[in-house]
Write a structure and sequence with these properties.
Elements lengths: L9 H10 L5 E3 L3 E3 L2 E2 L4 E2 L6 E3 L5 H14 L4 E4 L5 H10 L3 E3 L2 H5 L3 H15 L15
Parallel strand pairs: 1-6, 6-7
Antiparallel strand pairs: 2-5, 3-4
The chain binds flavin mononucleotide (FMN).
The site of flavin mononucleotide has 14 residues, from helix 4.
Length: about 140
C-alpha cells in the first residue's frame, strides 16, 4: 500500500492497512502544495494545488518511515526526496527495507545506479556484509 503523507494519522493508517492484509507499505507519496502567480494572482497549477516531491520532502518522509517502522511488522519501501546514497542509507536506518527513487530520476536518469553504487561503497568502507544490518539502526 502506498501511503499519502497528507494526514496527521500516518501511524494509525499504516496499522489499519497492515491489519487489513497489506504485504508491504510504501511511504510517502507527494505532499500537497501550491504556488501562486503574483502577476495573474491565480494558482500556477491547473488544479490549484499539486504534489510536492524531491529533496524538500525528505525530512517529512524520513520521519514517517521512522514512526511507522515502530508500529508495524511488514516491510516498508522508503520514498521521498532520495537523491543520493546518503539519503538512501538514512531511510534504511529509519526502517526502510527498500527505497524508491522518483524525482531524482528526472534530474539524472542514472540516479538509481549512482545510488546503488554509493550504497555498495558505503557498505565496503564500513565493513558491513549485509545491508539488512542497517534496517532500523536508528532505533537501536
Ligand atoms: C510526476 C510524478 C508522478 C507520480 N505519479 C505517481 C503515481 O501514479 N502513483 C503513485 O503512487 N505515486 C506517484 N508519484 C509519487 C512518487 O512515486 C513518490 O511517492 C513521490 O514523488 C516522492 O518521491 P520522490 O521525491 O523520490 O519523487 C508521482 C510523482 C511524480 C513527481
Amino acid at each position: 500500500m502506498k501511503l499519502t503523507p497528507n494526514t496527521a494519522e500516518i501511524v494509525r493508517i499504516a496499522q489499519a492497512v497492515t491489519t487489513a492484509g497489506a504485504d508491504a507499505l510504501c511511504l510517502i507519496n507527494t505532499v500537497r502544495g501550491m504556488a501562486i502567480n503574483i502577476k495573474t494572482r491565480q494558482p500556477v497549477l491547473g488544479n490549484s494545488y499539486g504534489g510536492l516531491s524531491g529533496p524538500a520532502i525528505k525530512p517529512v518522509a524520513l520521519y514517517m518511515v521512522y514512526q511507522v517502522f515502530k508500529a508495524v511488522n511488514i516491510p516498508i519501501i522508503g520514498c521521498g526526496g532520495i537523491t543520493n546514497a546518503d539519503d538512501a542509507i538514512e531511510f534504511f536506518m529509519a526502517g526502510a527495507t527498500a527505497i524508491e527513487v522518483g524525482t531524482a530520476s528526472f534530474m539524472n536518469p542514472r540516479a538509481p545506479m549512482d545510488i546503488l553504487e554509493g550504497i555498495e561503497k558505503y557498505l565496503l568502507e564500513n565493513k558491513i556484509d549485509d545491508l539488512r544490518e542497517l534496517i532500523g539502526a536508528a532505533h537501536r
